[in-house]
């Protein structure tokens, strides 16, 4: 029987390590030393070989930013489930400003379910942007191989996957590997300053919070009679829970992460959520919802209402607000309005591309030997998203411990091209919590 973890954040990782047989004291010592330990710095004249796993639009953009982050970085390997995706990515990169450092030969263009391992074996730095359902296995393999990592969000789609990531994060810490998360708002200077002021008490004590990620619809790749059901689902991965974890996990996690950040990297203690399919009801949209509304509660009583939806031709709203005893912090707008009338807004001439900033931080860590590991907060925010989805799917109020210890494993028993079951659309009150 699988051993269970119990709490969240630093406590989650400690409890997980304890359940796996490691001493709590050893884990605490690792964390205490974590910010002071140095990586094995890489000389600035040494080449850094970079590889991409997952060659879609985000992956192609991310690996471009990785190469731009370091003058000695070279792209040497591409891997995707589908060779046409890898070829499209290569063509785009060869027509970009990093073309002279794209040195991927035919022997380092990989496809299939094992493409990730071949990329890992070929490089020093891995950029991970495959569908989230694969991420726990990709992370574990790269960390076991001793590679530095940029990992897109989210890091898992279910609790068994998240527990695998928690273990891998600890392994990365022990190996002193650089691990940077694709939760990009953490690397936007404007938001860093806004959250810093919040933590310093700019609006007093936090009372409650809200966030919204209400957008239009996303892409659909259609179908092809030559595709197996497995290929169809993977090419349209955002519509299947085992691949994306639903859009609350794949997209809304950015908003949820800002709330976790506001709460000093603690994820909530419980959640009650609702959701469904009001617009995207056709079978082609797989088994995911098109809207979620959640109420989260922290142990200190702070509550947050969150809303996300993907509806065409409707009003959109992307916003995060923290209400305190002395005013409100508008995180997305980088604005603080106090009850006494004082207003602060971020103003700076400093270039602030959060997507580039995160890669700059990763390569700086590799070159200088700085310790950098975003594992704790990327797991916290992923857990928060999974909590909301499972509560909405089942109609149950759930605690973080219940969700973290869930045995529901969405990953297929076998990865092979051919038929694969399409999981049903969840029905609250009918779909069980497992």
Summarize the structure.
The protein has 15 helices and 15 strands. It has 434 residues and is an alpha/beta fold. The protein has a nine-stranded mixed beta sheet with strand order 14-13-12-11-7-10-9-8-15.
The largest sheet is: 9 strands, mixed
Instruction: Point out poorly predicted stretches.
Output: 1-7, 12-37
Task: Going across the biggest sheet, name each strand in turn.
Answer: 14-13-12-11-7-10-9-8-15
H/E element string? HHEHEHEHEHEHEHEHHHHEEEEEEEHHEH
Tell me the total number of β-strands: 15
- Ends: how far apart? 15 Å
Please compute the radius of gyration using only Cα atoms.
Answer: 21 Å
Mean pLDDT: 92
**SS-based class:** alpha/beta
């Amino acid at each position: 029987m699988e051993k269970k973890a119990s709490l969240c954040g630093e406590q989650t990782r400690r409890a997980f390590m304890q359940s796996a047989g490691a001493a709590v004291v050893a884990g605490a010592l690792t964390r205490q030393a974590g910010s002071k330990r140095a990586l094995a710095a890489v000389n600035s004249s040494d080449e850094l070989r970079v590889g991409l796993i997952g060659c879609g639009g985000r992956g192609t953009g991310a690996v471009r930013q990785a190469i731009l982050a370091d003058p000695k970085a070279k792209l040497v390997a591409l891997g995707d489930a589908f060779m046409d995706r890898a070829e499209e990515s290569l063509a785009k990169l060869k027509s970009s400003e990093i073309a002279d450092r794209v040195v991927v030969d035919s022997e380092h263009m990989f496809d299939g379910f094992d493409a990730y391992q071949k990329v890992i074996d070929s490089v020093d730095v891995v950029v991970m942007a495959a569908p989230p359902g694969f991420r726990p296995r990709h992370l574990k393999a790269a960390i076991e191989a001793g590679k530095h990592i940029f990992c897109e969000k989210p890091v898992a789609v279910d609790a068994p996957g998240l527990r695998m990531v928690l273990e891998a994060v600890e392994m990365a810490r022990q190996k002193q590997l650089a691990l940077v998360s694709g939760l990009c708002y953490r690397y936007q200077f404007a938001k860093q300053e806004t959250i810093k002021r919040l933590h310093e008490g700019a609006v007093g004590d936090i009372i409650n919070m809200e966030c919204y990620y209400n957008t239009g619809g996303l892409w659909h790749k259609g179908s092809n009679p030559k595709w197996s059901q497995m290929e169809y689902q993977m090419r349209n991965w955002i519509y299947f829970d085992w691949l994306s974890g639903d859009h609350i996990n794949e997209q809304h996690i950015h908003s949820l992460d800002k709330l976790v950040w506001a709460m000093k990297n603690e994820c909530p203690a419980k959640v009650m959520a609702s959701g469904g399919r009001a617009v995207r009801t056709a079978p082609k949209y797989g088994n995911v919802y098109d809207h979620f509304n959640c109420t989260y509660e922290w142990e200190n009583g702070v509550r947050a209402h969150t809303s996300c939806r993907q509806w065409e031709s409707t009003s959109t709203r992307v916003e995060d607000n923290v209400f305190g005893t002395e005013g409100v912090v508008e995180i997305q707008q980088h604005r603080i309005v106090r009850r006494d009338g004082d207003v602060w807004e971020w103003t700076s001439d400093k270039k602030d591309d959060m997507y580039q900033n995160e890669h700059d931080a990763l390569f700086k860590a590799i070159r200088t030997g700085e310790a950098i590991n975003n594992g704790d907060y990327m797991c916290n925010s992923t857990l928060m998203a999974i909590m909301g989805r499972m509560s909405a799917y089942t109609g149950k109020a759930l605690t973080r411990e219940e969700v973290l210890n869930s045995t529901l494993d969405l990953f297929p028993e076998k990865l092979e091209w051919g038929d694969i079951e399409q999981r049903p659309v969840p029905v609250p009150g009918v779909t069980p919590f497992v």
